[in-house]
Amino acid sequence: YAEYNPEKAKRLLQEIGLKKDKQGWYLRPDGKKLTFTLISKHPAKFDEAELVANQWRDIGINANAQLISGELYGVRVNANLADTAVWYGDISSTDMTFPVFYPNVASGGWGNACWPKWYDKWFGTAKVEKEYLPIPEKVKKLREWYLEVICTADDDKRAQLCEKILQSQAENLWIIGTVGYAPHPVIFNKHLHNYHENRLWIWDVTWASDVDPEQLFFDNANERK
């Protein structure tokens, strides 16, 4: 699914019946301009949001990236008020760390997908006071796998279930990704030793803990005091 193909993107939009206005922007079925706002709370990730917005604008979607505070981001995401929310794919790098809370099939959590609000009612403890649309079987199965993963003590079974969840993401695109396992250069002082050259830099291992920082040392530590 991951390919940069603007012409194909335009064709897909046209195939679902969207028309353009005189300025070249796609219109929704109700005649209003098709507009998306991509929100991000992380300055380091905002460049990616701007890149995506610019690519969407190039094909005729009126998209804009917006950098907002963490407090406002949390309110909008948890209330399902964001058109598109940008977050990095943490807690999903390996079957050793994944999944801790993703995909918790319900709205809530900055790193979770904002599923429809009735999923909260269905899967949560709140009493369902009215009839909601049925949850797709694929989503029910996703929830079942997740609950099995966080309960099983069998490492092999956990890895298999995690693979099923990731395969479901690949097939259904519950979350639209950009790029994974991008290199992240780190500069070490020449006097620093016992570091690992190729390790993970990701929230799953709280960034630098994967290099075992408690074992790092300087060869001239006494001279530096």
Automatic annotation (TrEMBL):
The record's Gene Ontology biological-process terms are:
peptide transport
Which Gene3D superfamilies does its entry note? Answer: Dipeptide-binding Protein, Domain 3
Q: Which UniProt keywords apply?
A: Signal, Transport
One Pfam match: SBP_bac_5
InterPro entries attached to this UniProt entry = SBP_5, SBP_5_dom
Annotated GO MF terms: peptide transmembrane transporter activity
Write out the similarity annotation: Belongs to the bacterial solute-binding protein 5 family.
Ranges of residues in domain Solute-binding protein family:
3-102
**What's the protein name?**
Solute-binding protein family 5 domain-containing protein
